[in-house]
Automatic annotation (TrEMBL):
EC number(s) per entry: 3.1.2.-
GO MF annotation terms: fatty acyl-CoA hydrolase activity
Similarity remark: Belongs to the 4-hydroxybenzoyl-CoA thioesterase family.
Domain of life: Bacteria
Species annotation: Rhizobium fabae
Protein name as catalogued: Acyl-CoA thioester hydrolase
Keywords, in A-Z order: Hydrolase
Coiled-coil residue spans: none
PANTHER family associated with the record: 4-HYDROXYBENZOYL-COA THIOESTERASE FAMILY MEMBER, NOVEL THIOESTERASE SUPERFAMILY DOMAIN AND SAPOSIN A-TYPE DOMAIN CONTAINING PROTEIN (0610012H03RIK)
First-tier enzyme category under EC: hydrolase
Length: 138
């Protein structure tokens, strides 16, 4: 997975994210990854391409895959690095890496696949050329 070297999002772990074993529950990692992807789009100043009200299309999560490396605990600060891994005809893949700031430990690797869909029938539709170009820059 190829990601931007600079952290683009940071999260402080809340008590609500913790499971009975004292670390972040596995399902919460997906929230962190989706938030990191949105922060990546915001940082690149292309978030408007992904709002259905301004783009004329919507994006649905098609696939989410997470590999866990090290636990994250309450009050840890997590740094997320994000990159675009692949731009297909109607799909977009993000690579996301999560790191524990206190010691730099690599905590998780994730892949998110979003599919571009038509607002009228929610069926896959090509990613608009303007969005494709904006994602390719930078």
């Amino acid at each position: 997975m190829s990601v931007d070297d600079r952290p683009l999002a940071s999260f402080r772990v809340s008590m609500r994210d913790i499971d009975i074993y004292g670390h972040v529950h596995n399902s919460v990692y997906l929230d962190y990854c989706e938030d990191a992807a949105v922060e990546f789009l915001r940082h690149r100043e292309i978030l408007s391409h992904f709002r259905h009200t301004t783009s004329g299309v919507a994006y649905h999560v098609k696939k989410a895959e997470i590999t866990f490396h090290n636990p994250i605990d309450v009050d840890d600060i997590v740094d997320a690095k994000v990159g675009v891994e692949k731009i297909g005809r109607s799909s977009l893949s993000f690579a996301i890496e999560l790191f524990r700031r206190r010691d730099g430990a690599h905590c998780a690797s994730a892949g998110l696949v979003w599919v571009c869909v038509s607002l009228s029938d929610s069926r896959p539709t090509p990613i608009p050329e303007a969005t494709r170009a904006a994602l390719s820059q930078g």
